[in-house]
């Protein structure tokens, strides 16, 4: 039996080069070398494709992160603007509230000062005209002689702390005006008030009649008798 030899096809690459002197030279690249170069090119192509795919995925991920960060920045910016508006509103409210509190405090101070002024026993102790002289003996005291029908009145707002018998004048009424001030009224009439009453300025204590035309008036500051002329207001 005749055996036929199988021949394997082989590839070869002939490279022809021509030198300057016209000599032609041939170079043959065998199939093994060509296969190696082809495999190398294939590997390089696969690496390049993989690198391009990786870079594309990385770039896409980076873009997504950038978009997320931009959205977050926009949200934070909106929140910051909203907080700024809210802070401005609260600041305005605080300013208005502070001004209101300040005005209220000023009004309360004014009222308090007005009450203090009304409480000071600097008014005239009679509702009408009367003769007046200062006591020449003992503690400072103003001595008034009034006509019938005139009222003996409080010289400032205050509280009646005592209505007692007075050895020289018959009755003694003591009124506490606060801030250390006390006024004392000595008269022989019938008192129209009682202990514990809170009285306004100009409130009637006695009505002057034929038997009680004399009034002894004194002022105390911090439990010490002072000269009434230092504080009393006399007009007319």
CATH superfamily of the largest domain: Glucose Permease (Domain IIA)
Please trace the helix and strand order, writing H or E for each element.
Answer: EEHEEEEEEEEEE
Bin the strand percentage. 25-35%
Mean pLDDT: 88
Number of domains: 2
CATH topology of the largest domain: Glucose Permease (Domain IIA)
> What is the total tally of β strands?
12
Helix- and strand-based class?
alpha+beta
Determine the N-to-C terminus distance: 169 Å
General shape: rod-shaped
CATH class of the largest domain: Mainly Beta
Described by strand count, sense and barrel closure, the largest sheet is:
8 strands, antiparallel
Based on the coordinates given, report the CATH architecture of the largest domain: Distorted Sandwich
Q: Helical residue percent? A: 25-40%
Poorly predicted runs of 5 or more residues? none
Give me the Rg, rounded.
Answer: 58 Å
Give the number of helices.
Answer: 1
Structure write-up:
The chain contains 1 helix and 12 strands. It is α+β, with helices and mostly antiparallel strands and 236 residues long. The chain has 2 domains: 82 residues; 101 residues, Glucose Permease (Domain IIA). The strands form 3 sheets. Strands 3, 4, 6, 7, 8, 9, 11 and 12 form an 8-stranded antiparallel sheet that branches. The longest helix is centred in the first third of the chain and has 89 residues. It is rod-shaped, with a radius of gyration of 58 Å. The mean pLDDT is 88.
């Amino acid at each position: 039996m005749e055996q036929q030899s199988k021949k394997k096809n082989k590839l070869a690459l002939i490279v022809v080069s021509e030198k300057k002197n016209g000599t032609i030279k041939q170079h043959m690249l065998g199939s093994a070398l060509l296969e190696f170069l082809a495999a190398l090119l294939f590997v390089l192509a696969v690496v390049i494709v993989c690198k391009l795919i990786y870079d594309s995925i990385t770039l896409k991920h980076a873009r997504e992160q950038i978009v997320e960060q931009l959205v977050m920045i926009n949200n934070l910016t909106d929140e910051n603007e909203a907080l700024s508006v809210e802070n401005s509103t609260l600041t305005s409210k605080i300013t208005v509230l502070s001004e209101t509190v300040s005005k209220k405090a000023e009004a309360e101070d004014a009222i308090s000062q007005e009450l203090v002024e009304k409480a000071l026993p600097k008014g005239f102790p009679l509702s009408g005209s009367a003769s007046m002289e200062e006591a020449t003996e003992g503690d400072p005291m103003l001595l008034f002689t009034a006509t019938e029908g005139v009222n003996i009145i409080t010289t400032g707002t205050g509280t009646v702390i005592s209505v007692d018998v007075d050895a020289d004048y018959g009755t003694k009424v003591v009124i506490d005006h606060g801030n250390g001030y006390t006024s004392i009224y000595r008269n022989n009439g019938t008192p129209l008030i009682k202990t514990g009453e809170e009285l306004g300025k100009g409130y009637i204590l006695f009505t002057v009649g034929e038997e009680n035309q004399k009034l002894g008036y004194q002022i105390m500051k911090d439990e010490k008798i002072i000269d009434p002329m230092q504080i009393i207001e006399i007009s007319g």
